[in-house]
């Protein structure tokens, strides 16, 4: 795995987002599922319950893909990178509004945008031409 | 190392493209149309750069990257103290810095030779290099996007306000 940037990134990000998702539940007691304002993770990143669930799902997908193989990791990195890019853009418009169903704040947008471009760069750029069969 | 630099080019171009696209909202049509074209071109080139084995259209891109900068400077000189209508300074400045970074990195890559390295970079240093670039661009681009007219559409954090109105160039919204 250490020789594959896609597998390495997917595994590290996947594990990180799973941990972030779990940790998020410790700061969202009393916060509703879709509340537009929530708790602050590390005192910076705002989350609500559905945001935590999203982190868990995304983290699990990345982690499983990273452990599976290069092809799966490339695909999931690219898909989630694209999703995070869209979320980063949409997040700019919904911050503070009634549509902010994920309780996104400015710090979240920076993290989402940074994660997006990193996942896209590696998913699209690294290991080009790799087939979907698993490699070591 | 070139793989890291090419990824940074993609990051810079994506950031600049998004900011230019965000600047369309609130700008007069005469500026909005070129901004849309520039933003789309930068965004598309950034994505292509991720997938390419070499910097795509390197020499053309190096020249094209400075065109928005020169255009903005020219508009500033013409507008004087009044400023360029609808084009906020901070986001345009950040976009210009990202475009300048594109031109500089392309120059570096061309001088080094944009051929594939004999030994590919190991995954760890490759990912660390990319992560550093992604973090810097995200930290610059996101606040710049929020500082545009488009970013102004968000109501103050923590308040429940009415759904926002699109701030079209002919409107005179009171924030």
Low-confidence stretches of chain A: 132-136
**Helix-and-strand structural type of chain A:** mainly alpha
What is the average of the pLDDT values of chain B?
81
Shape of chain B: globular
Largest interface: A-B, 36 and 42 residues
Describe the structure.
The complex is a heterodimer of chains A (136) and B (175). With 136 residues, chain A is mainly alpha-helical. Chain A contains four helices and two strands, in the order H-E-E-H-H-H. Chain A has one domain (5-125). Chain A has a two-stranded antiparallel sheet. In chain A, a hairpin with a 3-residue loop joins strand 1 and strand 2. The model of chain A is unreliable at 132-136 (pLDDT under 50). Chain B is 67% helix and 0% strand. Chain B has six helices and no strands. Chain B has helices at 2-22, 29-51, 58-79, 89-112, 123-146, 149-152. In chain B, helix 1 runs antiparallel to helix 4 (89-112), helix 1 runs parallel beside helix 5 (123-146) and helix 3 runs antiparallel to helix 4 (89-112). The termini of chain B are far apart. Residues 155-175 of chain B have low confidence and may be disordered.
List keywords for this structure.
heterodimer; A: about 140 residues; mainly alpha; two-stranded antiparallel ribbon; 4 helices; B: about 180 residues; about 65% helix; about 0% strand
Show the helix and strand layout.
The complex is a heterodimer of chains A (136) and B (175).
Chain A: H1 5-24, E1 39-41, E2 45-47, H2 49-68, H3 70-94, H4 106-125
Antiparallel strand pairs in A: 1-2
Chain B: H1 2-22, H2 29-51, H3 58-79, H4 89-112, H5 123-146, H6 149-152
Helix pairs in contact in B: 1-2, 1-4, 1-5, 3-4, 4-5
Quick recap of the structure?
With 136 residues, chain A is mostly helical.
């Amino acid at each position: 795995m250490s020789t594959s940037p896609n597998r390495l990134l997917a595994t590290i990000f996947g594990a990180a987002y799973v941990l972030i998702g779990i940790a998020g539940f410790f700061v969202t007691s009393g916060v509703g599922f879709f509340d537009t304002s929530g708790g602050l993770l590390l005192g910076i990143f705002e989350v609500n319950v559905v945001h935590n669930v999203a982190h868990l799902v995304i983290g699990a997908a990345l982690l499983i893909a990273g452990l599976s193989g290069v092809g799966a990791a490339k695909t999931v990195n690219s898909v989630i990178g694209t999703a995070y890019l869209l979320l980063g853009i949409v997040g700019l418009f919904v911050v503070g509004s009634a549509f902010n169903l994920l309780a996104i704040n400015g710090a979240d947008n920076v993290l989402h945008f940074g994660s997006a471009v990193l996942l896209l760069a590696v998913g699209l750029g690294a290991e080009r031409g790799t087939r979907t069969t698993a490699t070591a | 190392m070139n793989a890291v630099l090419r990824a940074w080019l993609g990051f810079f171009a994506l950031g600049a493209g998004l900011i230019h696209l965000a600047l369309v909202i609130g700008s007069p049509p005469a500026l909005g149309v070129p901004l849309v074209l520039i933003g789309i071109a930068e965004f598309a080139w950034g994505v292509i750069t991720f997938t390419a084995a070499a910097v795509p259209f390197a020499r053309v891109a190096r020249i094209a990257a400075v065109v928005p900068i020169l255009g903005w400077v020219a508009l500033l000189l013409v507008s004087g103290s009044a400023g360029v209508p609808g084009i906020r300074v901070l986001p345009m400045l950040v976009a210009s810095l990202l475009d300048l970074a594109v031109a500089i990195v392309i120059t570096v890559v061309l001088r080094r030779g944009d051929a594939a390295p004999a030994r590919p970079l190991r995954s760890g240093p490759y990912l660390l290099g990319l992560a550093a670039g992604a973090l810097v661009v995200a930290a610059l681009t996101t606040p710049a996007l929020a500082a545009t007219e488009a970013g102004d559409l968000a109501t103050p954090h923590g308040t429940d306000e009415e759904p926002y109105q699109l701030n079209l160039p002919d409107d005179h919204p009171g924030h």
